[in-house]
User: Which sequence fits this backbone?
């Protein structure tokens, strides 16, 4: 069976999804086009060789109504013969794009595909596509009754599992603390591509995430009012606790991302080309470039098999010196080994996670997991 591998992943910085957000002045098509362009440029891939571009987008209304994936391909100056489509599977839209890209490669329909995602919630507000219309219809309502919005569903989940406001705020504050610490260590540097200011292409609109609440505390988050109108539903659901707030729920954000998905054969060709252009470093050079403030920008120089995809967000386990897992598959079974990734060392993994950590295992991820898909990075000098 053919194998699909992910060789690179980029994203814009995240911006607050309101008029004062750092990306509010950027059209969503241009936002995604920038990610597409930089993804191919830094991997030396000819845009005309891409078999398909699949983009996840929930709010397909207004400026995102004209299949934004296709518009972004045109804005990025891909040849017009390169096809593109836009996928909507609610909050899983971007992940579904990755799944479909991998499916296409495994089935033999693609050699090179791009899976992407874009959402500009400052310019296309949540719920804009629905408006005042009924998206369910009488048959669905007859079967399920009056459906509740997602926020009330979250309140019902909190009630069902007895999650307190304090627990949720503590979890959220800890997540922001970890994200801030990762950013300070350069953990996000390799994946973030800067966004230029549309009014002044020589200046940057954004180069770092705006959505990390550095310095958040449970006490400060606890001062925020509940995000959803639970009183309107209390007659039907008297158990609603009113614990979901803007500080512990999903953020309203702007952003775009793109992943390069190749067949294993095409990835081997790319790997050989990279190795010819960037000969292997010496031991001392490797240590000097791999150890330091975070993971430098690099090219993918190794991979593992990708069968099913489960994306990890801000807190990704590390599996060696200068090496990060970007995409993994979580299944029961014994660990797989790494393909030669240009200097992956067990001592680097042990330094982070203790003597039991070894390459091919997912660091601090829970027991009984198997890593089937990963990006293995090696830094390189950027072209001038």
Assistant:
């Amino acid at each position: 069976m053919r194998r699909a591998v992910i060789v690179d992943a980029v994203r814009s910085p995240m911006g607050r999804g309101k008029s004062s957000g750092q990306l509010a002045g950027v059209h969503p098509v241009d936002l995604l086009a920038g990610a597409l362009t930089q993804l191919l440029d830094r991997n030396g891939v000819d845009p005309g060789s891409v078999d398909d571009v699949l983009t996840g987008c929930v709010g397909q209304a207004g400026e995102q109504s004209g299949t934004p994936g296709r518009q972004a391909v045109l804005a990025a100056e891909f040849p017009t013969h390169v096809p593109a489509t836009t996928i909507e599977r609610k909050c899983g839209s971007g992940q579904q794009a990755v799944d479909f890209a991998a499916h296409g490669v495994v089935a033999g329909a693609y050699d090179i595909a791009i899976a992407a995602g874009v959402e500009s919630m400052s310019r296309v507000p949540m719920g804009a596509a629905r408006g005042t219309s009924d998206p369910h219809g009488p048959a669905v309502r007859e079967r399920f009754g009056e459906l509740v919005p997602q926020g009330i569903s979250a309140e019902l989940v909190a009630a069902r599992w007895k999650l307190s406001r304090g627990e949720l705020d503590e979890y959220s504050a800890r997540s922001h603390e970890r994200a801030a610490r990762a950013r300070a260590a350069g953990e996000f540097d390799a994946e973030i591509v800067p966004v230029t200011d549309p009014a002044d292409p020589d200046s940057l609109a954004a180069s770092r995430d705006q959505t990390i609440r550095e310095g958040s505390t449970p006490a400060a988050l606890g001062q925020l009012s509940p995000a959803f109108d639970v009183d309107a539903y209390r007659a039907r659901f008297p158990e609603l606790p009113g614990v979901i707030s803007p500080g512990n729920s999903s953020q309203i954000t702007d952003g775009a991302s793109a992943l390069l998905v190749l067949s294993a054969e095409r990835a081997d060709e790319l790997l050989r080309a990279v190795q010819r252009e960037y000969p292997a470093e010496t031991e001392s050079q490797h240590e000097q470039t791999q150890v330091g403030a975070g993971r430098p920008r690099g090219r993918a120089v190794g991979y593992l098999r990708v069968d099913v995809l489960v994306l990890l967000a801000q807190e990704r386990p590390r599996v060696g010196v200068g090496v990060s897992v970007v995409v993994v598959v979580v299944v029961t079974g014994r660990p797989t080994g790494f393909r030669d990734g240009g200097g992956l060392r067990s001592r680097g993994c042990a330094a982070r996670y203790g003597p039991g950590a070894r390459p091919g295992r997912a660091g601090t991820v829970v027991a009984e997991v198997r890593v089937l898909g990963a990006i293995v990075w090696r830094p390189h000098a950027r072209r001038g």
Remarks:
- DSSP finds ten helices and 14 strands in the chain.
- The domain at 4-126+252-264 is CATH 3.40.47.10 (Peroxisomal Thiolase; Chain A, domain 1).
- Residues 131 and 142 are 22 Å apart (CA to CA).
- The radius of gyration is 22 Å.
